Amino acid sequence: MKKDILPEPYQIPKMGTSGLRLKQEQYNRAGFLEQFTEGIARYFKEITSTTKIAENNTHLLLGGDPREGNSERIKTMASILTAHGFTVIVPENGLASTPAMSHAIRHLKTIGAIILTASHNPFTDVGIKINTANGAPALTDCTERINELQNDVQDYLTQDYKTALTEGLIKTIDIISMYADLLDKMFSFKDMREKIEGTPVSAVFDSMHGAAGPFAREVFVNRLGLDPLMLREEPRTDLGGFDDKGEPKHPEPDFDYVSDLINQNSTNQFSIAAAWDSDVDRRLDGGSGFFLESADEFAIFARYSHLINIQSMFNNTIYFCRSTVTSHAIDLMSNELTTIFKDKTIKTVQTPTGFKWIAELGNWGVEESNGVGNPALREKDGIFATVFLLKIILETGKTPLQLMEDIWKDHGRVYFTRGEVSGSDPIEKEALINILKEAQSQIGNRFGTLTLENAGSWDYKHPETGEIAEKNAAYFLEFSDGNSIKARFSGTGSGGYTLRVYCSKFDKNYSIPKTRIVQPMKDAFDDFLQNGGFKGKSEKYTDSNQPDVYL
Ligand code: VG1
Ligand code: CO
Q1: 0.85 exceeded by the pTM?
Q2: According to the model, what pLDDT value does residue 548 have?
Q3: Span from the CA of 99 to the centroid of ligand 2 (angstroms)
């Protein structure tokens, strides 16, 4: 063991929506990762020195997606963590999904996990997420303390990686089996396998060259006996490399990035179709020519909750959560949920963006960005969602669209889309903030074909403590006829700014072409920006490449 001095300590930025994401060059600067890790080691030492946080009070998990440099990063970090006296548990080949790590924390009773992933960001970005002993992504008090400690680091402890290995301070686990076992408990794979053998199911899955491939193979092929068409199965350090324009590909299960999957699904030959992001905590699910919007699929999941063995995991109060910018499809189902969970109290809760807020409450929740929670762990979980959809398809014999129409017929439909305004000029960003902050002064004015009726910003009030846990988590603009827009700045980028814009509108009639509903909102928002003197425009809407079933 030795103490190394940092020649020039860095100012390490605070973590964003989910971990710290920076350009590769920034993470790769000499001493940066060492300083970053030393701060994490000091944090975990601080919280465990006087209190037993977990049964294995010195065990930490370390692993992540396959992106370039992560296997070396694991070695550097393990050398520092073991020098501090931690036992480091690394999944085979360092490859882990975020939900599998969340499960492993609870299963192995460790004090937390360090997950090396920049998730949906391209391989040219590096990211590190921290999850705590309850399995959930670290909340702000933890990430802020880590940041303080990191910025205090002048020197760090480290030791030879091989020595740490031979001394048994670094252990390897089969996280894929561990995770598949959990899903088996929840869904009873034996029953599902029998059903699959009875009625052959065709499937197409896109692993986007992230961590998903080996997890999907274990679950769907080895355990469930499916014979799916597997797209981009192999984990790659470049997560699929570059697109036609020379831009690194985004391992994000969004319509813009999964053209092969869209084409395959549109042949109508697959009962189920899915894609997952590089750390497998998000999914895009569908099948039989149709794709499901995230909150809509969550409504289906809520209706069929009884098909999974999770009742015992719930407390007396069940929170059905969604981030406030997510479609309120689940809120429409309150009465139905009360009949499904007769002996429980049901609460629908809105949270800020970032799954940490949902995970903290017990984790039955959804985000519009294709993340849905798994109540057996404390994260969003892509493969869980796809297995659940498969189970529902097998049990009901219905297609995803039929399942969706059943819900829409009963409760109406929330038409939803997410877009963005992005740029690199900080002055422009300031201008945007001011326009949004001052939106109230525009009430009564007409933008495009809509009138602004209300505006402001939304604070998160914790449902248990009643405290304001996060101020200004999103701006809102309410227009005439129930047209609603929310906006907030993304906290996962590695440069420039991205204002995310969320449009939603409820209608009892579910078969209106989506464009007809959302276009007036997109236009009104652009008009609102221009009126405030902003030159840019909202674009990249999630529905732009989405085949609409009701054309
Ligand atoms: C985005 C999504 C958010 C998600 C976060 C992390 O954050 O909008 O819903 O929780 O990514 O997801 P932002 O701040 O860029 O809007 V993961 O799977 O990519 O870590
Ligand atoms: Co992710």
Answers
A1: yes
A2: 75
A3: 9
